[in-house]
Design a protein that fits this description.
Length: 360
């Protein structure tokens, strides 16, 4: 299989794209790939490490506040359309896949206009602007949450789940000793994203002293952006602080309660691994989509949510202590998370791509 895949901007788009690539490689080892990404975002550093041929285009999202900057955006988009058409013609793929981010717009649109088959995947419950626009140019649209179906043409939509969930199930669990943790004590995992979440981290730094003498341990993943500032503080002995963990799902498999933002890939991993969680959605994302992602779990009685504006005093400590002691609620959360699972997500995506390619 010859595949062009595009996704950009955040790990929430990039890692599902890589999970799809891995599944195609597993099913068809001789497949060839070309990844098209932006010139100045995360994918340019991440993707080449996986040995996937990478080509970049200069492209930007539209800015509502700085109207005049959009002239440059439009100019880059026109150039990107021409460049993408040439890349696609030269590579001559069997399928072109978009997994989110504005970089996918010229890739999928150009592919469809050239007559190639196209697939896009939406990770969030509320679709981004790129996928909303590209729904007109996609042959198949994969969604992660059932609630997303209302936003797309019904005849194109398939509930696939998030391909990161399949990876999460297959990864080996870590040994807690790797992080100086006790294998016999409950683990509370705080994860604030790869870059961090400054406002929440400011609250957590003040809160950590309240966890002194608890019977559980805390692994606090600050994000690289805030780590240098946070590591200067003194924390209780049962609190371990790290900037980032590669393949964090191996730690999630040993986690009793997780405190996290509501990125789509993270929630898909929580669902796949049935982890009781306290979700603090970021209010700074387009369309407030993290809040709506979190609602999909909360409304199904499978997680708790605390909005950032409500982070005051000892609310987090009390919520963790109450949840950890409530064995019935934890059991209920795990049972309800199982109901939300889409098993073999990456395989479902591969199977539908294969059918699309074989369709005459």
């Amino acid at each position: 299989m010859r595949v062009i895949i595009s996704a950009g901007g955040t790990g929430g788009h990039i890692y599902p794209a890589l999970a799809i690539v891995d599944k195609i490689k597993q099913k068809e080892p001789n497949s060839e790939f070309l990844y098209i990404g932006t010139h100045d975002r995360m994918e340019k550093d991440i993707v080449p490490k996986y040995g996937i041929p990478f080509k970049q285009i200069e492209i930007y999202g539209f800015n509502r506040k700085k109207i005049f900057s959009n002239f440059k955006t439009i100019n880059c988009l026109i150039k990107a359309n021409k460049i993408c058409k040439k890349m696609i013609k030269d590579f001559n793929p069997d399928i072109v896949i978009g997994v989110g981010g504005y970089v996918t717009v010229p890739v999928i649109k150009s592919a469809k206009k050239l007559g190639y088959k196209t697939f896009i995947h939406e990770q969030n419950s509320i679709p981004g602007k790129a996928n909303t626009y590209l729904s007109n140019y996609a042959d198949i649209i994969g969604i992660s949450f059932p609630s997303s179906k209302q936003y797309f043409p019904k005849n194109k939509v398939i509930l696939t789940g998030n391909p990161c969930s399949e990876d999460a199930k297959n990864v080996l669990a870590c040994d807690k000793k790797e992080f100086n943790l006790d294998n016999n004590k409950p683990l509370i995992l705080f994860v604030m994203g790869s870059l961090g979440a400054s406002k929440v981290n400011d609250f957590l730094v003040k809160t950590m002293t309240l966890f002194n003498n608890k019977e559980y341990e805390i692994l606090y993943v600050t994000g690289k952006g805030d780590y240098d500032k946070i590591k200067q503080y003194k924390f209780p002995n049962n609190v371990k602080v790290v900037p980032y963990i590669d393949k964090i799902t191996r730690v999630m498999k040993k986690t009793d309660i997780m405190i996290t933002r509501a990125g789509a890939s993270t929630l898909s991993e929580i669902i796949a691994l049935q982890i009781p969680s306290i979700i603090i959605p970021s209010p700074y994302v387009p369309n407030n989509h993290q809040y709506k992602n979190a609602l999909d779990l909360v409304n199904n009685n499978s997680a708790l949510m605390i909005e950032e504006k409500d982070l005051k005093g000892d609310i987090l400590v009390r919520t963790i202590d109450e949840l950890l002691k409530d064995k019935i609620k934890i059991k209920t959360f795990k049972e309800n998370l199982t109901k939300l699972q889409v098993n073999n997500s990456a395989t479902i995506i591969y199977d539908n791509i294969k059918k699309l390619i074989d369709r005459k």
